[in-house]
Amino acid sequence: MSYRDKLQYLLVKKMQISNAHAKELIAANIVLVNAVNVNDNILIKETDRVEMNGEIIQEGKKIIYVALHKPRGIECTLNLEIPNNLKELINYDEKLFPVGRLDKESEGLLILTNDGYLFNKTINPKSEVEKEYIVTVNKLITDDFILKMSRGVEILGQTTLPCVVEKIKDFTFKIILVQGLNRQIRRMCYKLDYLVTSLKRVRIGNVCLNNLPEGESRIIFEDELK
Questions:
Q1: Which domain holds residue 115?
Q2: Known catalytic membership, residue 103
Q3: Which of 101, 44, 78 is nearest to 36 (CA)?
Q4: Are 100 and 125 in contact (CB under 8 A)?
Q5: Over the stretch 94-151, which tens digit does the pLDDT of each residue have?
Q6: What are the percentages of helix, strand and coil residues in the chain, rounded to 5?
Q7: What are the b/e assignments for 75-110, b being 16+ CB within 10 Å?
């Protein structure tokens, strides 16, 4: 869950008061967080309702996490002016944004949320959040191809991080990345003289695509976000 501010800073920012005054209000035990009086400078989540003497300081944001099976041919944008956009596929009142991207010709799992913390954690390679893909190419997959892909390929002026690559069929392999460079898998394959004919993301961290139908979405359960 996304933490926003310490309680004292939240009061200063929202009520336009001094740090000293905010500290006094907290110590006076008149600030309520989720209807409970607090007298400590605790961390406040975006979902917390903060009020004092009947005045709402923070309403409490409803955080939503959605798993979408993005079809091939859909652009990873919520801009309604761009044809075949994501907004046409999802029907939620909250303003959601995609966590990471899938290019237009790729399909599979896409997470949408209004939680900025999850977005930053997922796309940061240091967090080592795994993204798993099933990829089909135009040529027979060799042991040399698997070895080079797993060790890293030079694209976009850098060598990709080591990753897990496993042959599934003659023309299909599984790859697990913790990076998210622009069109990374397609560029890696192209550098090794292979062309991707289909690319499907099936997992991000603990969230799996499973049997979610193409073009459909579902709410992500809390235990999947751990």
A1: 62-127+206-226
A2: yes
A3: 44
A4: no
A5: 788 888 889 999 999 999 988 877 767 776 667 788 999 999 999 999 999 999 999 9
A6: 25, 30, 45
A7: bbbbeeeeeebbeebbeeeeebebbbbbeeebbbbb
CATH of the domain at 196: 3.30.70.1560
127, 210 in Cβ contact below 8 A?
Answer: no
Q: Find the distance separating the first CA and the last CA of the chain, reported in whole Å.
A: 10
Q: Which of 40, 103, 143, 170 is catalytic?
A: 103
> Which of these three, 58, 82, 105, is where a domain ends?
58
Tens of pLDDT along 176-217? 999 889 999 999 999 999 999 999 999 999 999 999 999 999
Q: Which residue has the tokens 């392999």?
A: 173
> What stretch of H or E contains 98?
strand 97-99
Is 67 within 8 Å of 212 (Cβ atoms)? Answer: yes
Q: Which two tokens stand for residue 159?
A: 């060598």
Positions of E strands within 114-187: 131-137, 154-155, 158-159, 164-169, 172-177
φ, ψ for residue 149, nearest 5 deg: -65, -40
Looking at the 3D structure of the chain, how many domains does it have?
3
Comparing CA positions, the residue from 143, 152, 125, 145 lying closest to residue 195 is 145
CA angle 127, 132, 133 (to 5 degrees): 140
pTM of the model: 0.78
- What is d(CA 144, CA 154) in angstroms, rounded to the nearest whole number? 16
Judge whether 180 and 123 are in contact, CB under 8 Å.
yes
